[in-house]
TrEMBL record:
This is Transcription antitermination protein NusB. Residues 1-26 are annotated as: Disordered. It comes from the Bacteria. The gene is nusB. It comes from Pelomonas baiyunensis. Residues 1-11 have a biased composition (Polar residues). Involved in transcription antitermination. Required for transcription of ribosomal RNA (rRNA) genes. Binds specifically to the boxA antiterminator sequence of the ribosomal RNA (rrn) operons. Keywords: RNA-binding, Transcription, Transcription antitermination, Transcription regulation. InterPro entries: NusB-like_sf (IPR035926), NusB_fam (IPR011605), NusB_RsmB_TIM44 (IPR006027).
């Protein structure tokens, strides 16, 4: 049995904990979150945001196809994604924190369009983004909203799990 790949947080220190190596897909979600956050705050052109992202360290480690699909898809379908989310949030999406809003957009986009990603994985990845970048209990909110949205967006997959 192979142990998961890990990278040292504090290289060379005995007994140091090791963080799991992030997959290219996870890195692409994190980069998309940062870009969408910028877009939500500034309304800047998404092409310019993507171009700026290309200059960032670690860009080559992204799943570039997934990153660009998330960035372009979330922006171009923002109104539709917000309409989906609006059925499951307790306030207007414009009143959400920009981090939670961006995480929910990514999760909803993956649930709607990335059928190669199981719905539980899409939700879990969004929860992990919220844990890493969001507020204290934001991940719980994201989990609940996307869990309810999955009923609308992945009814066949959910029915097959039951």
């Amino acid at each position: 049995m192979n142990a998961p790949k890990t990278a040292s947080k504090t290289a060379g220190q005995p007994g140091a904990k090791r963080a799991p190596v992030k997959s290219a897909r996870r890195r692409s979600r994190e980069a998309a979150l940062q870009g969408l956050y910028q877009w939500l705050l500034t309304g800047e052109d998404i092409g310019a945001i993507i171009a700026l992202g290309r200059e960032q360290e670690g860009y080559a480690k992204l799943d570039l196809k997934h990153y660009e699909a998330l960035m372009g898809g979330c922006v171009h379908e923002a109104a539709d994604l917000d309409a989906i989310l609006a059925r499951h949030v307790d306030r207007k999406t414009t009143e959400l924190s920009p981090i939670e809003h961006a995480v929910l957009m990514i999760g909803a986009y993956e649930l709607k369009h990335c059928l190669d990603v199981p719905y539980k994985v899409a939700i879990n990845e969004a929860v992990e983004l919220a844990k890493s970048f969001g507020g204290t209990d934001g991940h719980k909110y994201v989990n609940g909203v996307l869990d309810r949205a999955a009923v609308d967006l992945r009814p066949l997959e959910l029915a097959a799990k039951r």
